[in-house]
TrEMBL record:
Domain of life where this protein originates: Bacteria
InterPro entries with a match to the protein in the record: DUF3443 (IPR021847)
Residues spanning the signal sequence: 1-18
Protein name: DUF3443 family protein
Pfam families hit by this protein: DUF3443
Keywords for the protein's UniProt record, in alphabetical order: Signal
Region (Disordered): 27-52
Biased composition (Low complexity): 32-49
Length: 424
């Protein structure tokens, strides 16, 4: 997603459940520590036979479970995570980072400084034409934000490598200047605050902020003088921005497929799936969708629900529920933002594209009582839902279970229609 759509949906607790949505948000869970690889133990072009979480070829394993240790009384289900390898360009100096949220609603790799360890200070930082270091402010709706330098690295995803790619280091390694006040309230730079070691954004754009190429006042990218500690909002060329690592792969670079199996309405302790790179580029990523919805330039589709057309809708694996406004559904007590109907609701909506393919698609979904779901402590639910703004329908992770969901990258050729699109 573009940066204006990032949102950690309200982080209140309902029983033991924390909400997160709109671009890889998460609860205050503690993440697992990253692992440093030694030369020869990282991925090669064919994957890694020692650590199955690294994947092989063009398939990166996804797992939805409760491996992230809860912080306090909250926990966050429906977090799809994967393992990525980051290396100093052209070397075997690498770090393997687990528990990275797979997010189809944002663009680019963002990892905490703590997860990268010594590599955080070793990666070369991007500089602007004045010689100042580029930083990024990545705000979320609840006041938390990512902040840190833009650095370049080789990013290994399963058996494929995106070489020398701009990514974000969430934190201030090596004395990087503190965040500007415009960023937000709370710096989210540790697993205990984020609930993961970072975010792997694989949405439908090549770079994360197309409008930032000509707009210096968006408060997203900053030019930072490391001597004075001063950072000023700046425009940034497309190539210097944080890049979608899938778009930089030498092959299989026109999109991704998120594959997750169907699960029981009662929830499931863990779910294993895949993030497949490329659409129609190999025998294992042939296009098999029956519905194609064209995204507009802001990566929105429309959803018609309860007689209203919600023109800022999207499909987002980084949102842990379905998020939409419906005053007829009972909300959980305490202002948590989750829905708690007395009986599970069977509902329907109609989705259609905002560009390109626009054929309406009928969408059926379920909304269960979030407190009852939370009491099971399961890690995956297909019927978890909460409130949203009146213009939005966020088709979060519950939508993905039992589907192969395709995301074609803008400007790339892919079967099924004109990119960018989402298909299933």
């Amino acid at each position: 997603m573009n940066s204006t759509r990032n949102a950690f949906w309200a982080m209140g607790l309902c029983a033991v459940l924390a909400a997160c949505g709109g671009g890889g948000g998460s609860s205050g869970n503690g993440g697992q520590t990253a692992q440093s690889s030694t030369p020869g133990s990282g991925t090669s072009n064919g994957g890694n036979s020692i650590d199955p979480t690294l994947g092989t070829g063009n398939v990166l394993p996804i797992r939805v479970d409760n491996s992230l240790a809860p912080s306090g009384s909250g926990y966050s289900p429906n977090l799809p995570v994967a393992t990525v390898t980051v290396c100093l360009h052209g070397t075997t100096q690498c770090t393997i980072v687990s528990d990275v949220i797979v997010d189809t609603g944002s663009v680019g790799l963002r990892l905490t400084s703590s997860a990268l360890g010594a590599l955080a200070s070793a990666l070369p930082q991007q500089k602007d034409s004045s010689g100042n270091v580029l930083g990024e402010c990545y705000p979320f709706a609840d006041g938390r934000y990512f902040w840190g330098p833009v650095a370049t690295a080789d990013i290994k995803l399963a058996g494929e490598v995106a070489s020398n790619v701009p990514m974000m280091i969430d934190g201030t390694p090596g004395g990087f200047p503190a965040a500007p006040s415009a960023c937000g309230v709370t710096l989210a730079d540790t697993p205990s605050v984020i609930g993961a070691n970072g975010i792997l954004g694989v949405a439908n754009l090549v770079e994360d902020c197309p409008s930032c190429t000509s707009n210096a006042s968006k408060d997203i990218y900053y030019s930072c003088n490391t001597t004075t500690g001063t950072c000023t909002s700046t425009a940034v060329t497309a190539s210097a921005q944080i890049q979608n690592p899938v778009a930089v792969l030498p092959q299989d670079n026109n999109g991704v497929i998120v594959e997750l199996p169907a699960i029981s309405a009662a929830g499931q302790a863990s779910v294993d799936g895949s993030l497949v790179f490329g659409i129609g580029t190999q025998s294992n990523n042939t296009f098999g969708a029956t519905s194609v919805l064209g995204y507009d330039a802001s990566l929105f589709i429309s959803t018609q629900y309860n007689g209203q057309v919600l023109a800022e809708s999207y499909v987002d694996s980084g949102s842990n529920g379905l998020f939409f406004a419906d005053s007829s559904i009972t909300q959980c007590a305490g202002g948590t933002g989750w829905y708690c109907p007395t009986a599970t609701q069977a509902l329907t909506a109609t989705a259609f594209g905002n560009a390109g393919a626009t054929t309406p698609v009928s969408m059926s979904f379920m909304v269960a009582n979030a407190n009852i779901l939370a009491s099971t402590r399961a890690s995956a639910f297909n019927n978890l839902a909460g409130t949203a703004t009146s213009a939005t329908f966020d088709w979060g992770l519950p939508f993905f279970f039992g589907r192969n969901v395709y995301f074609a990258i803008a400007g790339r050729t892919a079967p099924g229609g004109t990119a960018p699109y989402v298909a299933f």
